[in-house]
Amino acid sequence: MPNRIALAYSGGLDTSCIIPWLLENHPGCEVIAVVGDVGQDDDALSTVEAKALRTGAAQCHIVDLKREFIEDFAFPTLIAGSLYESRYLLGTAIARPILARAQVDVALQTGCDALAHGCTGKGNDQVRFESAYAALAPELQVIAPWRTWKLRGREDLLAYLRTHNIPTTASAEKIYSRDANLWHISHEGGELEDPWNAPPEDIWMRTCSPQSAPALPEDVMIGFENGRPRSIDGQPMAGDELVAALNQRAGRHGIGRVDLIENRLVGMKSRGCYETPGGTVLYEALQGLTQLVLDHKTVQLREWLGARFADAVYNGEWFTPQREILWAAIEKMAERLTGDIVVRMHRGTATTIKRRSENSLFSQEFATFSADEVYNQQHAEGFIRLYSLPSRIAALKANQPQGVSH
Predict the structure, then answer these.
(1) Claim to verify: residue 12 and residue 148 sit in the same structural domain
(2) pLDDT per residue over 58-101, tens digit each?
(3) Domain enclosing residue 200, as ranges
């Protein structure tokens, strides 16, 4: 029986129920609420400590993770070019390892002997949190109320709070399940559970409709050093400040919306609508820089590594040797990704229009269609004959008479 439990706490309906449930089902224990601030734009953060204490927590720790989250977790996925199933910029998945690590840190500092979370038994997050716990504090017991309690829906949760005389502003009418941080916001549930329903316009919170976006485009210059975004229009910024500023500018142009049917790690398909305005612009910019700086074989390797890195993030494998090895290769590859990229934002699209880098492999002298003195076009004939030699041999063998061999 645990004596002190560190709970990953958001202040939402689920975790508001979990505190009294833990106290009820583990008599004599204390609950330490741990809130990770990853830039969720939630006004409730200002009152979350009072709420946690009011519902029975012995302590509430609010940990500011915004800068570390962007620079040490979100930016590596960007540098890798990681997209889960070619679409998803991993906004929810990449926040889980830093939230779990902060929870474990508080648990160890406060003498907890158990960890608890509010993830359901159907989703990916239970795997992500518990895999992090296993890597960071395997000696601590893990409690997952959604897998054991009798509560099965929003109405049950509200009834539970009423029974325990715990006030809440939540209602039974909530339509969508949302997860927000500085990198993105996700929307699930409600009408989205039918894949034949188009996303209603009222679900979007960080991006305007592309149809109502400004008629005139806006250009933004992103400065990169070793693959990391360092400036906007020549102004140096820390990662969290840069993403926040770019979210505002890109969101005004309706950039970063994704409507995706994805394959969850637990085996089922789910539908999510994601908004990643700043991240979408940064991804486009870094792709433009990659095209300018890296050779063909290295670009192909980056794409392969990026897909593997995306799987590792999505599947909760951040604190594993595999993810660390992948990152070592990606970080080495990014050493040449320094330069400036201009992206044009216009009605839902982000398009690279200008590129410059001291590491550029583009040579105007070689690529020009005008007269040049560095490339003898006659040399191409020999190259083509050797390049196409396998096809030539196959055709000659196919056309020779039966029974004739050389």
Answers:
(1) yes
(2) 999 999 999 999 999 999 999 999 999 999 999 999 999 999 99
(3) 178-356
